[in-house]
Every structure is written in C-alpha cells, then in structure tokens.
Amino acid sequence: MWTPTEEEKIGVVICSFRGSVAQGLSLEIGETVQILEKCEGWYRGFSTKKPTVKGIFPTNYVHLKKGIVSNSGQYETVVLLEDSIVTEVTSTLQEWAFLWKQLYVKNKVDLFYKLRHVMNELFDLRRQLLSGHLTQDQIRDVKRHITVRLDWGNEHLGLDLVPRKEFEMADAEQISVSDLYKMHLSSRHSVQQSTSQGDSMRHRHGEACRIPIPHHLFLNLKSFTYNTIGEDTDVFFSLFDMREGKQISERFMVKLNKNGGPKNPEKIDRLCALFTDLSNRDMKRDLYIVSHVIRTGRMLLNDSKKGPAHVQYRRPYGCAVLSMSDILQSISELKEEKDFVLKVYTCNNENEWCQIHENIIRKSSTKYTAPSTNYGLIISLQLLRGEMELIRRENPMIFNRGVAVTRKLGFPDVIMPGDIRNDLYLILERGDFERGGKSVQKNIEVTVYVLYADGEILKDCISLGSGEPSVSEHRSFVLYHNNSPRWGEIIKLPIPVDRFRGSHLRFEFRHCSTKDKGEKKLFGFAFTPLMREDGTTLSDESHELYVYKCDENSTFSNQALYLGLPCCKEDFNGCPNIPSSLIFQRSAKEMLWISTQLSSTKLTQNVDLLALLKWKAHPDRLMDILGRLRHVSGEEIVKFLQDILDTLFSILDDNTDKYGPLVFQSLVFIINLLRDSKYYHFRPVMDTYIQKHFAGALAYKELIHCLKWYMDRSAEVIRQDHIQEAMRALEYLFKFIVQSRILYSRATCGMEEDQFRLSIQELFQSIRFVLSLDSRSSETLIFTQAALLNSFPTIFDELLQMFTVQEVAEFVRGTLGSMPSTVHIGQSMDVVKLQSIARTVDSRLFSFPESRRILLPVVLHHIHLHLRQQKELLICSGILSSIFSIIKTSSLETSVQEEVEMMVESLLDVLLQTLLTILSKSQSQEAVRGQRCPQCTAEITGEYVSCLLSLLRQMSEIHYQHLLDNFQSKEELKEFLLKIFCVFRNLMKLSIFPRDWMVMRLLTSNIIVTTAQYLSPALHKNFTEADFDFKVWNSYFSLAVLYINQPSLQLETLTPSKRKKILDKYGDMRVMMAYELFGMWQNLGENKIHFIPGMIGPFLGVTLVPQNEVRNIMIPIFHDMMDWEQRKNGNFKQVEAELIDKLDSLVSEGKGDENYRELFSLLLLEKIEQETWRETGISFVTSVTRLMERLLDYRDCMKGDETENKKIGCTVNLLNFYKSEINKEEMYIRYIHKLCDMHLQAENYTEAAFTLLLYWELLHWEDRPLREFLHYPTQSEWQRKEGLCRKVIHYFNKGKCWEYGIPLCRELASQYEALYDYQSLSWIRKMEAAYYDNIMEQQRLEPEFFRVGFYGRKFPFFLRNKEFVCRGHDYERLEAFQQRMLGEFPQAIAMQHPNQPDETILQCDAQYLQIYAVTPISENADVLQMDRVPERIKSFYRINNVHRFRYDRPFHKGPKDRDNEFKSLWIERTTLILTRPLPGISRWFEVEKREVVEVSPLENGIYVVENKNHELRTLISQYQHKQLHGNINLLSMCLNGMIDAAVNGGIARYQEAFFDKDYITSHPEDAEKITQLKELMQEQVHILGMGLAVHEKLVHPEMRPLHKKLIDQFQMMRSSLCHGLPGLEKISPACSGASTPRGSILASHSPLSPESIKLVHRHSPLNLLGSIRHSSSSLSSHTSSETGNLVILTDGLVGETSEDMYRMQASPSSSSLSSTHSAPSQLINSAPSSARGSPSLPDKYRHNREMIMLLPPHRDRPSSAMYPAMTENGQVGAGNSQTQHLIPTNFQRALIQQVIGPCKPCSDPNLSVVEKAVPTAPSSWSLDSGTREAMPFLSAHVGSIMVPPVPPRTIPHGHFSMHFDAFHHQISDLPPALPARSLRKSPLHPIPASPTSPHSGLDGSSSTLSGSASSGVSSLSESNFGHSCEPPVHTDTMDSVPSQSWTIDEDVESPYLPVRYSISEPDVLEPMKPPPCRSHSAPSGVNPHHDPPTLPPKPYMGRGEGCIPEEEMRPRPMPRKISQPLLSCKEEQAKVAWEHGIKEE
C-alpha cells in the first residue's frame, strides 16, 4: 500500500540504481531525489534533475536529509535544511565535474590537476562542516577556505562570479543594487588575491586610522648537535639590530645538559619562543637572530688542572648569528615552520666576547674560529601576523607547547590598555678592577641581588631570559684573567610595583681562583637604588657605579651601613660630606658600568607628570605644571590616563575661572593624543573612564563655554592651531559635556534643563557661524572648517542621549545647510564637506525614518550641486550608495515612498546626465573630473549605474506617475525619455559589468524591462498621431532590440540548471520585451511607415534570436511593414532590399537556423494569403527563404573546418543567387571578392582571374567617379577597371592561361592607344608578346575532369542531389580525386555503379558520392583539325572553354557473336552539358543537361578509322613541313602500330563483321555507312603508303632494318585487304620491299593520333611499350605463340649521374615477335580493366585485331572503369585467355632506345582501390625482374646468355630504381585480377574507376597498356620504373614536356649528362613457369629493397664513356619541379642490337 511520506521528503542517492524493475526510476550516485510515497522498502518520487519522470527506488539506496516542504500536495517543493554554503559546495562540485573532464579532453592538463586538487580540498572541507564538531571560529575559518576555493575554481572555469556576504551567497532581493555591486567587486578582489574575503563593504569615507598589524617571530630550537663541549650549557637567543648596534628584544634562554638535550626533561620538543610585537619598521631593520652559548663547568675546557671539578664557573663558549633579511622572504610566504642551521663560532680573544656577534656579522674572521663541521644549532622559524589574541586563536598548537613569550625591550608601537608591565632591564656593561698584588689578572664573577628597603633579598626578581623561571640572584659569566671585563649581559628585573620604592641593586665582585681549592673570594661591591628621592625611577641611561672594598668577613646584614654612601658620581655630588671612617672604603680606581631601561605602565621617570599628579603639593606652580603637560611623552600620559583626567577635572572643580581654559587645553591635548595610531587602542579606556569613573557634574558648563569661545574667535585670530585642535577633539568633548550633564541632571533631578538646551543651541549657532564663513581668503580658516566638519558627525550619538531624533536632525540639517551651497569654495573643502555628509549618512541618526526625512533634502541638495558640476563624483557615488542601501533595508520593514519621491525629484535627471557624460568620456578614454582617488573610470561608471538602478528599482507605479506628471512640457518629457533610453542602450552596448557578473546583469535587465513597461504608455500617449516624434520612438525601438539581443539573456547557451534558476526567478525577459515591442509597434498606426526600412534590420536581428516565442511575436511585423509600404508605394521594394541586405550580414554573424527559415516562411505566407498582393508577397518570401538556405550553408562552411572546395562551391552558389535571382549588385560584388580571395588562397589563379573578371565586366571605360568600396579607394570607373584588368591579366599569367589574358591585353592596349599613353601601351604589348612566347615555350599540364554526384539530404543545399563536373588539379588522377572528395565528406558513402540513383537515395538522410572521370568535348574543332597548328596550342583548346563532357559505356545488344564480338558491341554515350564552361569562376560547375545516345558497332568503326586516319595524316604533315624533324620515333611507332595491327587482323575483323553478305543483307539501311567504312580503309592504306615514303626519306641508316620490316608487313596488310578493298594494288613504289619475318616492334591496333603523339611526351616509356600481360580487356587474338622482344627503358631522374644507370644490352632472340594479343587502343585509352576496372570482354573473343576499329581514340574513351567484363547478355562476366610469355629482344630494345622521346610517368586516374590489392612479386624492385620471369622461354629458344657478369653497382641514396615486370594473367572463369597501383594500401572505401579516362593508352594514367599505340606486343605490363640518374637529352624534334616529378628534391637542377644502359644477368628459372603478377609502379620515395643485380660490361665504347654524341651532351637548364625522361637510345647501340638480333635469328 503506497502512502504519502510525512518525514521522508528529500534524500541523496548513495548507490546507483538502474531502474530494472517495473516503474523503476534510474538514478545515479549523488543525485537528489524528492520522495512522494513509500511502500515496504520502496520509495516513489523523482530526481530533481528530471522532475517530470517519476518512479520507484529502494529505500536503502537513499540517504535522507531534513527539508522544508512548501505548498504540500501533488506539486509540493522541498528545500534542504542545511547550511547554504554546504548546498553551494554540492551544486558547484556537480557543475565542475563535467567541466573537469572536458579539461582533460582539451588537453589542459595543468588546470585539470589543479582543479582536482581543489575539488578534493572542497570535499574535505564540506565533510568538516557536516561533521558538526567545529567551534564557531573553526566554522568561520572553514567557510572562508571554501569560498576562496569556490571562487577560484569558478573564475578559472569561466563560470559566474558569486557575490557574497559573510561567506554566503547574497540574495539580490534583500539588498540594494549598490550593495550588490560592491559585493561583486569584493568577491572579484578576493578571487584575485586568493585571500580571505574580510568585510565585503569597503570603508568609503574618512575611515578610521589604520592600526598597524604587528609581526611575531616563532623560534623553535630543535637540537644542538655540537657535542664537543661535554658540559651543561645555557643558550640565549635575541634579536639584534646591527645598524643601531643594540639588542631590541629580551633574551630567550635554553638550559641544556652535557649531552645537548634540555636539562629539564619536561621541555623536550618544547624549546620554543615567540618574539612579539615586531612592527613594520622593525622588519625593515638590519635584524639578526643572535645566539650566545655559555657553558657551566671548568675554567678552561681542555685543562683539568684549572680549578677543581666540583667548582662550576659560567664561561663563554661560542656564538651563532642568522640574518633576518636573508630569510624573511622565504618564511613570510610559508604557513609553516622552516628549518635553519646556525654554525657556532668560538671567540679567539675573550676580551672581545661582548662583540663576537658583531664580528661574525662583519665577517672579521681573525677574531673568531669557525667550527670544524657544519653542524650546530638547528632551529625552525615561522613568521606570524596579527594581534596576539588572533595568534593564540589561530595557532593553538604553538601555545600548547609552552612557548616562551619574548617581548621587545620597550613598548611596542601599539600599547594595549590592559597591557600591564613593570620591567626594569639591567645591562651589565663592563668593570674596571685593580690587580690587587696578583701576578696575573683576576677571574672576576659578579653576583647581582635585588634587595628591599629592609635588607630582604627579593625572591625571584631576576630573569636571565624567557623560557626559564626567575631567580633570586644572578652570577655573571667569568672572563679568564681579565681585570677589565666586558660582559654585555641583559637581565630583566620584574620587580612588583609595591616593592619598587625603597629597593636597590647590589653587585658583589669575587675573584675565582683556579687553584686546588677553587675559592671565590669577595673583594668588593657596588649598589644603586631603583627610585630617586623625587619619586622618579632610575633613568634610562648608563650609570657609573662606585666600587667599595670588602672581603668575605664583611657583613651586609645592615644595608643602612652602605646605603648612606654615594653609589655614583651624581650621588656623591648630592652628599659631599660623607665621613671617611665608615666601614666600607671606596676603591678609587675601580668602577662598574651598568645601563638600565624601564618598561613600566605603573612607574614614571617624568618629573612634570609627577608634579601634575601631586599638584596640591605646589598649587602656586599649577599654571606652569599645566603648561608643561604638553611636553610629557604620550607613553607616560596613556599609562596614567585615568589619574591625569581625575586630576584635571579636580583642578577644574577647584577653580573654574582661573584654570578653566588651561584644563580645556590639556583635555584637548590628551584627546588628540588618543587619535594617534600608537595610542588608538586607549580610546576604549577613555570611554570606560567617561562612563564609569568620570565625576565632573559641573564640567559641561565650562566645556561648552570654552568651546563656544574658541569657535567665536575663529573669525578673528590669525593662528588657529589651538582652535583646530579643539575642533578635532569635538567628539570626546561632547562625550564629557553630555556625561557631565547627565550626572548633573541626576544629582539635581533635571534642573537647568532649559539653560543646557539653550547653551547647546547657541553652540550650534557658533558651529554654523564657523561653517558659513568665506574661507577662500584664509587658508587657516579652511583647516578650521575642515577639522570641524570631520569631527561633526561624531557628536550625533552623544546628542541623541539628550535630545529627540527630530531635534538632533534639525541641529544637523541647520549645520549642513549653513555650508556654502556653491561648489567654488575649493576642491579640498568640497571633499571635506562631502565626507562629512557621507559620515552623516553612515551615522545611526540617518537610520531613523523620521530623521531621514529631515536630513535627506539637504543631503540631496549638496549632491545635486556636485553632480551638476561633475565634481567629486566618487565621493558622491559613495554617499548615494549608502543612502540606497539604507532605504532598501528600511523598505523591507516600512514604507519609504516619501524618501524615494524626494530622490526621484532631486536625482533621477542629474544621475542620467552624469552617466551620459561619464560614458562618453570613458569611450574617449578621458579622465573623469573629480576623481581624486586613483580609481579607474570603469569603477565610477559601475558606481553610478548601480545607483541609477537602485533608484529605478525602488520606484513604484506611483513614483513613475508623479514623475511623468511633473514634466511641464512634452519637450521636457521627450528629453527625459531620450536620456534614459540612451543610458539603457549604453549599458547594454558597453557591457558595464563583466561577463561573469551574471547576477548583476540579470538584475539590470529586469530593472530595464520593468522601467520600459512603465514608460511605454507615456511614449504612446504623448508621441503618437499628430504629436509623433520619430527620434523618441526610434530610441525606444533601438533599446528594445538591443535588450532582446543581450548575450546574458540568451538562455540557450546556459546549462539546464542555470536556465531553470533564471526562468524561475525572472522568466524569459526577452519574451516580455518582445511583447512590449510588438504592442508599441501596433500603437504606431500610420506612423509605421517612418520605420521602413530603418527598423527592418534591427527587427530581423530580434527574430533571429533562438527563442520560438520571440520569433512568433516578431516575424509578423515584417508582413505589417510589407503591407504599409504596399499601401504607400504600391510595392515593398524597400522592405525587400533591406531584408535581404541585413539577412546576409546577420546570418554570417552566426544568427539564424533551419528552424527559423521554416518559421519565417510559414508565418509570413500564412499572413500574405489574405492580401491582394499575394503573388508578389509569396514570391518575395520564397526568395528570402531560398536565400536563407544558401546563407546558412555558406555560414556552416565558413565557420567549420571545411575544405576550400566546399567554401568555394558555397560562395559560387550564393554569388549566383545574388546575381540571377535577386539582383543585388553590391552583395554580388562583395561575394566576387570573397570568392577571389579563396581562390588565391588555394592557388587557383585561373579561377581567381575569371572571378574578378565578373566585376570587371560590370564596369565601363568611363570617367564616372566611384566611392570607396571594400579595399578600393575613391577613384574613377576607368581607373578601377584598368586596375582590375591588370590584376586579372596577372592572375591568368600565374594560372598559365595566356590565351585568356591576350584579349584583355588587347583591350587595355586599345584604351592606352586611344589616350596616347604610349608608355603603358608599350608595356602591355610587350606583355602580350611575352604571353605568345609562353604559349609556345612553356610546358602546361592537362588536367583531368571528373563527374561527381552528391546524393542525399545530408549534403549542403548547394550540393544536394546535384551532379557536377570538376576540373582536377595538376597531376591529380581519379584515385587522388576520390580520396580528396572522401576527405572533404568523411560521412559520405561511395557508390559502386554509374547508374542514376533512385528516389530512396535522393531523399535519405545520408551522403552518397558518385565519381568517375569524363572526357571533354572541345568547342574548338576547327583549331584541332588544322594540320599546321602546333600540338601545344591544340592541347589548350582541347581542354579549355569546355562545357560538354562525355563518357562511354560498351554493351552488347542482342545475341553475341562468339567468333567476332564486334558485331554486337554497342557504345552508350552520355554527354553532360554544364551551366558554364570550364575553367571558370569555380573548378566545378553543375550539370545542366544530360544527353544519352547509342552508337552502333558500324558507326563506331567508322569513327575509329576516321580518327586514326586523321592522326596519321597530321603526323605525316608535321614531318613533311619539318615541324617535327631529326627524330622520327613518333612516325616509326605510329606506322608500326597501324601496319602490324592490320596484319594481325585488326581491320580484317571489321571486314568480317560488316562486309559480310549476311550483314549487308540484314542491314540494308547501313549500306551507305559500309561504303564509307570501305572508303576510309582504302584511305588508310594510301596514308600508310605516304607515311612509309616519308619514313624512307628520314629514317636513320642504322634503322633501315626496321623500315624494311615495315615495308614487308605493309605488303602483307595490303594483300590481306585486297579482296575486300579494290585498288590497294596501286601502292606507292616507295612502299615496296622484301618480306621480312612476321614480327612487331611497338605495334598498335590503331593509327597514332596527334593526341597520342602528345601523350607520348606526357607519359612514361612504360606506357609506350604497353603491357606484357593478358587480361579480359586485352582482346588479343592469341593466334601466335611466338614471343616478341621487349625493350626496357628508364625514366630520367633530375640531378642524378650516368653512373647510376643500368645499361641495357641486347639479348639474342631466335625470332621476332608476332603481333601478340593487344587490346584496341580505344578500350585501353579509356581504361583497360586491368588498370581501371573497365568492362572487359571475355577472353574467348581472341581476335583482337577485329576489335581494334570499334572504339574511338584515346580522348573519347568509350569503355568505363565502372564496368567489369561483359557477357553475351550484357551482364558482368569473366573471360578466358591463355598465358603468353614475352621475351624482350635486342632489336626491340635498340628500337625503343631510338624511338622513345621525352615522356613523363603518370598515374592512372581511374584506378580503383581493388586494383591495389594485388601483391607485388618479391623481385618487383629488380631491374631484370621482367626478364627473369620470361627466362625459361628465352632459354629454350635462344640458348645461354652470352654476356659475362660484372660486380654489382649500388645506387646512391635518394635515387630510385623502378623496373619492368611482366604481368601474366591466368585465364579462368573469374574476372581478371587487378594489378596494384602502388605499394601502399588506400584507407578509403573502394570507388570504382571512371567509365572514361582523359588519357590514351599512352597515358601514364593507364599505366598498364594492352597493345598501346605503338606496340605489336600483346600486353606490356606497367612495370616498376628504374629511373635513370640523368635528365633526357633535348631533341630537335620535340620540346621537352614536364612530367610528374619522381625525385626527392624537386628543385634540383643539373645539366644533361650521357646515359648508359645495361641489363643485368638474369636468373634462369624453370621452363614455362607463369610469372606472378607485378605491381603497377613503385611509389616515389622508396629505395630498392635489394642491391642492384650484376651489370654486364658495355659492348663497346663510342666517343668517351657514354654513347650519346657530344652535341647532345651539352648542359641545358630545366624548368623547376619537372622530371623529364631520358632519351633512351644511342645509334651505335641500336645498330649492334639489330645486327645481333638478326644473327641469332
């Protein structure tokens, strides 16, 4: 049964509960739970963290606490009953816990550990508080420690400052704003100082004299480790002032036994002393701790003969010193003892014992001996500060150890009234004695006694030092053989006061014999009385005492026998007639010198003081005695204060008329003496005397009379010192007057009351008279008035004893009113006057409401005057703070309406004016006038703001009503409203209060909104309709907008607990102000039009506040604005323009969110629906909503860690929107420049130029002046356009797009020419010419193009569900681009197919990326088709100004022909049309349109053959016109590729496929196309004939065998095509020649196009050679099992030497290679499956020759990397093939060396990640690895290798060797393996390669070339490159082309050097073993894993070491960062290789 709980209401979870039961409430340890019901071991309730979630939990999981229940029932609340500071600690620690962990995450380790330490301390302190075992003082101390730590932690964690009062959080509702401000300041100060808080209220006005805080030095002797003495010792410690050469403290004495331990066992660990009352002045002295060690034992320590063992002497031993100045800093900072070791030095000469400490300090090392060890006295020291009572309370452990309090010699700086002392300090200085017939000097010991008058020795009246009990006699230490001993011993004589008179000191002198008996023989004595005859004590000076002779038989029983004798010279002068027959004879030559110092509160040495106290003995001298009182020292007066006062008043009673003025003066002197800080503590003694001991009942009359007489005389006398002293003593004079009157009234039952009142009134008239005098002419009068004003407030409490509150208030008002009300009396007087007022306000009188009503007007009057004059602002603010504090306190009990009314009338306006002035000055950094104290302007501002807020907070509706009614005119009201609104705005704009003063800022906001609510009706009432005033309304609106946008009110940024606290206390004040603002807007009526468009921006800022209620209130205002402008102008263009402008800036500042966009659209569209202008309104709202989408995307990109691409794309999107949709030119231009800056930062110079060109196009060549804008100065439009033009040209130059810069140069040139500015014209023409040179000479890289699709709703708006084409960076291929895109969108998923995504993907909350490469379709076909245009120029037009791109996908349509698959192989060609051409203002543009067409097999064949014909024709033309000359490598390769491919069936396959009768019959519609294909084939044969003719003319003699082979193969090709193509028999005679064996050298299946020629230069030799592997994409015929020869080439490394190259030597071959299985170049060009994952046909289609003509040339790339092999039905499938082994032959090697020109290595952009997975063979780094794999076949056909081995040669560090490996793919039913692209694995998700690639098979991007454009080899694998050490020789036929840099140091440049090639001796492997798959290429930066293989010797040497002609060896400079391939051929080598190959054959 669940029952409601009665006692168990609240608790804390002590064990986490998971809530695993039904209705269980999950709880974490430490949570607070409120309990509602209970049932059998279970509670039901909720956690205070989540009050809405209720559940059950076990009772034993909760620790119950006491609490108070309010509003019992279902919604009851419970408040914990515990100390508020415990609650604060708990909540603060919970808040810190999360932040503490964040510190670790943010790597703020130092603060992390500090905070952990502080949190642990807080746990401990909280535990102590909760224990309940602490005293009140301890609780206070613990709370102090807690608050210091809480404030420290809050500050370092950036949390709010907590205002405190007495360690507890202040309640802002209970105190005034001024007090709250001071508490914040005090808390801030305590945090900064990390000290105790002290009083939170600072003394502002005339604070009492500061009492100096005394210091106390605690000393603890831990041990004396000097064990060499072996006797008892006395150790004395004292403080010594070296500068004055005297001790300043008593001695602390420690008695130690011979073992070094304390003589008294009880004192173990208790040997400590406290040297007290050290002043600040003492701490600045040159102080030393001096320790003297006196031993007690034998006369001589090491001589046992000197004296018997039983006789003990006190003998000096050693001394130690410690400088206080050296250690003061270290012990001041510590809160604990610190140890020090004191070395004990021994004296060399006992005569100087008294100076040993000074000698040690001076380091006179000849006078003392240092100890042999470092041991000595070990002491610990601690410095304590504060009054003795506080020290006792705070350090009980010190006093529990029996510490010896060791006082100063003399009184401390502050003499406490209860401090009773009666100490006489005696210093035994020195003596002078006769030898007395001895052969040696005496050993003299002095014994000191204190004797009373009757001869009795006073017991225990001699103290040798604190720490040991007093004794009755003292024996001095003995100096060995010294008749003039100097002791310097200080002895304290604590003699009782009653025994002091009549007592005397007796000094007995004994000679200590060192003979056997060890006798001490008395030989003389001296004495001195302690008090003189006149009653004064022995004076503080040195006394020279007579020594009288005596012996052991002399008796001192009758002290009268010697007391009558003179003790000293002065005494002898007093009694000269002493009979000489006395028993004691004076020794004339012997003397004793002593010094005395009296420290007594009972005895005096002052004669004048004694005379005053005994005035009745000499009444005739009284006038003189009273006059001399001023010369008595203060110490003597305060000691006898009561006696002196009694004496003075007794004199006054005796003869008032005669002695009255003198007694008054004496009284004034004594009163003023107590104002001194040294005697300030005696004021309570004076108060006690007045209350309890004063008996002068008639004194008041004379005191009033004298006081009035002094005041009345102040206008007459010149010297007013005595008057001023009387004014200063006013407080105590009035105390005496009032107490005297009370005594008289008691004695007489109230007689003469009226006379007393009248005399007081007259006295006040005199006071007013003094104050009303004009003091400007008299400086002395100013001081008199100042003294009076300072003392005046102190008499109020005394007057209140005799008069009513109202009467005293009237006295005070009259007095304050008598002061001059003008402020010109002088600044110093102003200060005093205001300080007096301030103390009046702080007095008890002002706390009474009845007196406050009387005093307030005059106080406010004076403050008002000063504020008007802007003088003494700081003091005025203090007075106002006190007034508001008192009124706030009173308002909690009674009504203060009247006082507040007075303050509003007097102060409100002037306070506002003062604040405005201060704020304007603080903004201009001016000093504030009247700022006497060095306080900063900020503090004054804070004071006055708090005063204004205090006043406004006290005002009620009645006060506001009276205020508004009192304005005489609307102008006055307007001025007031403008002032107060302006002040409020400044409060929020200037952030008067620091960010962490959250309590203060929230209270300020609450007061402002309340005030606005009171004032807004007046605004509405007085300034609408006819009286409308724009200025006031605008000020109000601005205030409201600023208010809502305040950072302190943005609750969304706060923690949930803090937010709840604020909402509970104040509510959401933004909503309150928003309602107020909306209401006032509605009240405007027709005047709303005045605020359009001015208030649109501010209101928009308000609506962007993330508070839905505020948004709901404010957004409809925009509809209102649109409506009013529509009514007035017929449109709302102004609203539209302003809204768009402001929206941009506000969103970029971080305001607004997606929710706001939706709400904005929803609310406005709903409102607009009913309007007549609905269509334009909806259009506008839609535009703004779309703009907001883009702006939010832009902001998110800019503020996040987004990549440049995202930012650029976002900016382009926004820029286009501004131009095309809303036509905001200024915003458009701003974003142009933002975009340009981003491009420059990313080094996209071409895009930056295009971007800036947009602004250039907006300008005209006119002289219209343009204003300053962005970074442009004021200038004409012509100048700005010219500057822009120059900048754009410069950027085009940096981007190497000179073709775009040239038209601008011409444009600029025409302008200069028109202006006859020939200098500029010359400059621009030269630049244009330089650009033409650059086009022809400088190398430019062709970028890749990639299509990217962004699908899914998670993408930014500008990308979402769109596709783009992107222009890649230099050297960036597909894989690198894919990695970059995935890096920019790490959450994206890569799509694995190129198909268009369906709707589910488009609408899902995810990110999908679809990426593949595309081919540009040039718009400049005419340029590309011109024969004589250089390739460099064509290259530019091929890839620039392109907005159409395509990619091809091959597929089979219908049944697949097994014998000739080309019959059914179609191409799906997709064309993408962009919104803008590339390059442009961005590196990517959106796809605007897609076109998909299908290309039939026949059409594709036509296209391929036509392109190849064109390529070959172009190449032949270039050789004929000598554009390419010298080196005919390109022509040789092109001819070889086309002829050899045709011979092996390439064109024949077309014949089979399309010239077949069945095909012609079944496709009659293709007849025309078939004819066209036939004509193209015939044309190709003719072109080949022309090519061979040109080749015949240009071929090198050594390459004739190659030409002969080409002729033979051409004959075979022609004959194979004769039956299908008539007319081929008529071939050019140049083509005839002998038939050669069928072989191929770099054969290709397609003619070589100009594009291919270009790519030969751009890509590595590897790509030229093709690949030695089979794949399903190879499409080889496999008709021949013969193996072709492979030439291994290396690409040159910049800066390496020829010695690092491996020479390649021909290896013999029995036959040349047949045209082995090579894929059509078009397939390869797009992306062979082995390299790109492109669709690969099954290997059973083995007749590759027939397929060669199917596909377009390399740029068109029909095949897709996205598709695997295709089966008959067009699906993905696997093909079969058989492995081929290919052996490179000498012939081919020589050819390649001749053929290959400069080329560069490139990677494959379309290579997929899957391709990387293929592991490299172990020998992938070996130069001869490709040869090794093919070795079995080579051995079988050729025989042994005939080249002998040579020792291996190493490659220098930093160079790379990359080698060729043959890739051999085992044909199976599985898809072909994909070779690895590099050695490293990619971390990215696999992305399929592109359906197209921008490079041909020659391109390094397709590093694996199946039948590349110049090879008959079936499949050259992309092998590992072995880079040569030398750059290539610059040929005459082709300019060098930059390639990818494969060097470590890209900047290294070196001349060209000869190149040597060699091939290492291969290993012989098992026959017919299929070689493993190799990696594509080795990454740069990787050194070979193995030593290079052994190198064969060079077959012969040509001219010098190398094989390159001398003319090719000359150095040529290279472009930086360009690695160019080596020319890998030498004619001699080629010849030998060819002959060797033929011979073997």
The helix tally amounts to 66
- State which percent range the strand residues make up: 5-15%
Spans of at least 5 consecutive residues with low confidence: 195-209, 926-935, 1623-2041
Number of strands: 39
Residue share in helix:
40-55%
Mean pLDDT level:
75
Task: Outline the biggest β-sheet.
Answer: 8 strands, antiparallel
Distance between the termini: 110 Å
User: Would you tell me the structural class of the helices and strands?
Assistant: alpha+beta
Strand arrangement across the biggest beta sheet:
25-24-27-28-29-30-23-26
Which shape, going by the Cα principal axes?
Answer: elongated
Question: Taking Cα atoms only, what radius of gyration do you get, to the nearest Å?
Answer: 56 Å
Blueprint (SSEs and pairs):
Layout: E1 3-4, E2 10-13, E3 32-39, E4 42-47, E5 50-58, E6 62-65, E7 67-70, E8 77-80, H1 84-105, H2 109-131, H3 136-156, E9 164-165, E10 168-169, H4 177-193, E11 215-224, E12 232-241, E13 246-247, E14 252-256, E15 272-278, H5 280-283, E16 287-297, E17 313-323, H6 324-333, E18 338-343, E19 345-347, H7 356-362, E20 368-369, E21 376-385, H8 388-394, H9 396-400, E22 404-406, E23 422-432, E24 444-451, E25 473-475, E26 486-493, E27 504-512, E28 520-529, E29 542-549, H10 560-563, H11 569-574, E30 586-600, H12 607-613, H13 622-628, H14 634-639, H15 641-654, H16 656-673, H17 683-693, H18 699-712, H19 721-728, H20 730-748, H21 753-772, H22 779-791, H23 796-802, H24 805-818, H25 827-842, H26 849-869, H27 873-891, H28 897-923, H29 937-954, H30 957-965, H31 970-990, H32 998-1022, H33 1030-1044, H34 1056-1066, H35 1069-1084, H36 1096-1103, H37 1108-1114, H38 1116-1129, H39 1133-1148, H40 1154-1168, H41 1174-1199, H42 1204-1220, H43 1225-1241, H44 1245-1258, E31 1265-1266, E32 1275-1276, H45 1277-1294, H46 1298-1314, H47 1318-1337, E33 1345-1351, ...
Parallel strand pairs: 15-22, 35-36
Antiparallel strand pairs: 1-3, 2-3, 2-6, 3-4, 4-5, 7-8, 9-10, 11-15, 11-21, 12-13, 12-14, 12-16, 16-17, 17-19, 18-21, 19-20, 23-26, 23-30, 24-25, 24-27, 27-28, 28-29, 29-30, 31-32, 33-34, 33-36, 34-39, 36-37, 37-38, 38-39
